Amino acid sequence: MAARAQNLAEEAVLVFPGGMDRSLDYAHQATGSRRRVVGASSLAYDPARANYTDWVRLPLVTEPAFEGALRDAVEGKKIGEIFTPHPMIGDYLERRLAEIAPGVRLVHESLLDVPETYRRLTRAVDALTDGPWDVAGPPPRTEELGRIERYALFNHARTLPGQCDNEKIWTICEVLRRCPPGDLVEIGSLWGKSAFVLTWLARRFAIGPVLCIDPWSAETRHQHDEGGKVNAFADRMDFDAAFEIFQINLADFDGRWINFLRSTSQEAVAVYTEKHDVRSETFGRTRYAGQIAFLHIDGNHDHASVADDIALWAPLVMPGGWIVLDDYRWAFGHGPKLAGENLLSVYAGRIGAAFVADSALFLWLEG
Question: Is the pTM of this model over 0.70?
Fold first, then answer.
């Protein structure tokens, strides 16, 4: 293993063509792993040159001089791996690289692999969603998603960073089919993966707008239960960047379906209950009904913080609405579970259904 690591450090990665988005991503990752990176292009002037400390110019793969120039670059730059996201170049090198430069590894993305990527997605979605939903709850209010719609939802969701797994996504989908019209409120949104799922489904099922509440700050993510063992991760995160990424991920929607408050849960509840009106540059104006049909609690996981979020927001959930407490089963502390057990006790007389999907606790409030 040590010898392999040493070889990787000594040999270089050739990224060709160096200016494609995936090329720049791969070069960044390789540089971060302390690998030597060489960029390449067939253009006489390529602005991507500025992103590389080492660079070579190669002829077009259709030119007779290409193979000799590539062989010279491999030998002169001590290339051990070639990365290309270009489908035609990748196909050519897949057929010819062993002869041009024996022993050099090829990493490429082929257009021929695209159908299989989608087949894996559709098989996974079918395995999860085929058949009746066998969890207790009210009858559906709307029709189920069509086959292509299901694939589209999961395909979009898988491109976004976050911890909202497929089982939870499908459970949310079936819950929202059974949800009365009203507002959807999410406490803790970070990069916006679960917010995207909620907004996509809220629009599809015509439920109501989503309100995302998150201060996007390290201080409010600090946890004191379990000796603050997860705080180092929060301290390393760039929350301003996370806030911008959230907006990028949700920008296809407008204020009819989503908005946000960059504030604490305590500050946001006053805005929600008193004004029912939220405005932002990204989404415009959103009018809320003031009655919550779906509440997703996924903020700070300290017991006191989760209990506070429940105390502030659960009373605003309308009859027939749902409460989802994320990370009820959590490997890094017991805050959500303790708060969830108290929630089950306090609302016992109103709970029509309660179950755990993925790691989240789902409650349906009958009346």
Answer: yes
